[in-house]
Amino acid sequence: VMQEYYKFINEPLPYSYKAMEPFIDIQTMYLHHDKHLQTYVDNLNKALRNYPFLQTFTLEQLLCNLESMPMEIRTQIRNNAGGVYNHRFYFIGLSKEHGQRPQGELAEAIDRQYGSYEKFKEEFTGAALSVFGSGYAWLVIDPQGKLKIVTTANQDTPLAGNLAPVLVIDVWEHAYYLKHFNVRADYIKDWFEVVNWRFSEEQYKKNSPQVRGH
């Protein structure tokens, strides 16, 4: 179970640093998880240190209630709780079983919405390429239960927009620079080889009103 309250810790990866080779290199996995994510964890704990009442909030609660956060730490919470949430989702969303495809009800929903997995991949790749500077591309469920592709800047999350994440790609340069330099398209192609579609399917079932309504 994810440790969800202050003091936040950097959960170890659920696989080895080299598990995504050759698609994501070992050095990138190590730096991305142990250095970049660790910094967000540390800064989030620092921001919450003097706010005991906020220490009972989960990451999601912090991020869904940004408007009511104390002014003086609102930006820190947005950036750092966002950084922790986004990175955790990204890392759990990778699988050492390479070459998976969507399955089950999520696969059906993707076919319904986008026509085919191939068409979905094209559209998702387009969104990931369109992020200017740093950010993420997501597949989410909107409040009506429809799949949608959205992008977020920096460490913003889709939670604030009442969207439930199913899949995410991190397109900050530190996610791919060592292997692909500035060629984001090559990284996106490689990332599709290591997507943990089982995890995405779980998120879809958990958050989709249609599925929940069965």
Structural description of this entry:
This protein has 214 residues and is mostly helical. Helix content is 49%, strand content 10%. It has a three-stranded antiparallel β-sheet, with helices on both faces. Helix 1 packs antiparallel against helix 3 and helix 4 crosses helix 8. The radius of gyration is 17 Å and the shape is globular. The mean pLDDT is 95.
SSE arrangement:
Layout (H helix, E strand, L loop, with lengths): L25 H23 L10 H6 L6 H22 L11 H11 L2 H14 L4 E7 L5 E7 L10 E7 L6 H4 L3 H9 L4 H11 L1 H4 L2
Antiparallel strand pairs: 1-2, 1-3
Helix pairs in contact: 1-3, 4-5, 4-8, 5-7
Q: How would you concisely characterize the structure shown here?
A:
The protein is mainly α.
